[in-house]
Amino acid sequence: MRPAAPAALVALLALTPPPTLITNARVIDGNGAPARPAAVRIEGGRIAAIGDLAPRPGEMVVDAHGLVLAPGFIDTHSHADDELFDHPDAVAATSQGITTIVGGQDGGSFHPLADFFARLGKEPAAVNVASYAGHGTIRALVMGDDFRRAAGRREVRRMQRRLVDDMRAGALGLSTGLEYDPGIYSARPEVLALAKVAAAHGGRYISHVRSEDRYFWDAIDEIIAIGREAHLPVQVSHMKLAMRSWWGQADRLLGQLDRARAEGIDITADVYPYLYWHSTLTVLFPKRDFNDLTEARLVVNEIVPAEGLLLTQYDPEPAWAGKTLAAIAALRGEEPAVTLMELLRRAEAQRQATGDAGESIIGTSMTEADLERLLAWPHTNICTDGALDGSHPRGYGTYPRILGRYVRDRGVLTLEEAVHRMTGLAAAHMGFGDRGLVRAGLAADLVLFDPATILDRATTTEPHALAVGIERVWVGGQVVFAGGQATAARPGRVLRRPAP
Ligand SMILES: [Zn+2]
Ligand SMILES: [Zn+2]
Question: What value, to the nearest 5°, has the Cα angle with vertex 224 and ends 221 and 228?
Answer without folding.
Answer: 130
